[in-house]
């Protein structure tokens, strides 16, 4: 819809120039003039040559609907991208990996080493590595046909959701999936594409949290045993003023490095998704 343009009057300039000079801290003759003198100045040829300033809202051509459609599509794309963090966190292997890494750091007791940026970056690249077959399948079955205009946006999104659902359902506990299906009023389905995404995602997330905590317990247990052994030794020799965590930290790091802990942990995480 085309809106008429409107002119910005020079009322702000009038107010400024007619105000007392003490208000603005200047000692200019123009600032001390009254309202009538200012209007006389505005009627001089210099001010008469100033063109009117206008603001126009909307396109000049009302029939140009293609630009409006493109603007709406851009708005929808930005809205979808705003959920990028939730998509990466809740629909990929990122959740399990990053939780296990934080359990490892708590078990070692190294406080902020490795830092959060390193752990999250490593988890992100491992997620890309694990999700590579799924991403390739989405590219072949949804993105490329959409680019070649063999399907529209709705069909491309429906085709892209099928590989994601297949990946999530393979990692989802059956009880969790059946619970959310029952809560959604879905008795049974004949194919994966019939399962709505709002049923698959929470079931998958709960399963990922369960598996991550199970792996975290198995990682935390040997470090806790080292802490107990060191605390018992310090208590037996009568050293009460020295914190056991401070003494056990070098031993935990030494044991973790000797057994090549990072490789074993990453290998176990990758194989847990196969």
What letter string, H or E per element, gives the SSE order? EHHHHEHHHHHHHHHH
Strand content: under 5%
Instruction: Give the strand tally.
Output: 2
Q: How are strands sequenced across the largest beta sheet?
A: 1-2
Give the % helix: 55-70%
Quote the distance from N terminus to C terminus: 55 Å
Number of domains: 2
| CA gyration radius, whole angstroms | 33 Å
Q: In one word, what is the shape?
A: elongated
Describe the structure.
By secondary structure, the chain is mainly alpha-helical. It is 69% helix and 1% strand. Helix 7 runs antiparallel to helix 8 (116-130), helix 11 crosses helix 12 and helix 12 (197-236) packs across helix 13 (244-258). The chain has two domains: 6-52, no CATH class; 94-272, no CATH class.
Brief synopsis:
This protein is mainly α and 274 residues long. 69% of the residues lie in helices and 1% in strands. The chain folds into 2 domains: 6-52, no CATH class; 94-272, no CATH class.
Topology record:
Elements (H helix, E strand, L loop, with lengths): L5 E2 L3 H8 L2 H4 L10 H8 L2 H4 L5 E2 L9 H17 L2 H7 L3 H15 L7 H15 L1 H16 L5 H18 L3 H10 L13 H40 L7 H15 L2 H12 L2
Antiparallel strand pairs: 1-2
């Amino acid at each position: 819809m085309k809106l008429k343009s409107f002119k910005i009057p020079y009322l702000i300039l009038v107010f400024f120039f007619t105000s007392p000079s003490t208000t603005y801290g200047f000692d200019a003759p123009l600032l001390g003039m009254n309202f009538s003198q200012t209007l006389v100045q505005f009627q001089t040829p210099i001010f008469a040559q100033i063109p009117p300033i206008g603001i126009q809202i909307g396109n000049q051509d009302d029939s140009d609907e293609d630009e409006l459609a493109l603007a709406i599509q851009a708005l929808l794309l930005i809205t979808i991208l705003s959920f990028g963090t939730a998509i990466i966190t809740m629909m990929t292997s990122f959740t399990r990996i990053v939780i296990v890494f934080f359990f490892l750091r708590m078990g070692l007791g190294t406080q902020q080493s490795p830092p959060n940026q390193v752990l999250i970056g490593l988890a992100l690249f491992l997620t890309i590595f694990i999700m590579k077959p799924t991403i390739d399948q989405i590219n072949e079955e949804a993105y490329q046909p959409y680019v070649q205009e063999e399907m529209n946006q709705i069909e491309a999104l429906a085709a892209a959701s099928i590989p994601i659902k297949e990946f999530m359902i393979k990692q989802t506990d059956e009880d969790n999936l059946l619970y959310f299906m029952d809560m959604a009023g879905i008795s049974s389905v004949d194919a994966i594409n019939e399962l709505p995404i709002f049923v698959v995602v929470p079931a998958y997330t709960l399963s990922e949290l369960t598996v991550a905590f199970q792996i975290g317990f198995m990682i935390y247990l040997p470090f806790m045993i080292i802490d107990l052994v060191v605390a018992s030794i310090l208590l037996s020799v009568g050293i009460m003023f020295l914190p056991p965590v401070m003494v056990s930290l070098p031993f935990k790091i030494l044991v973790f490095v000797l057994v090549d802990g990072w490789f074993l942990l990453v290998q176990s995480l990758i194989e847990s998704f196969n």
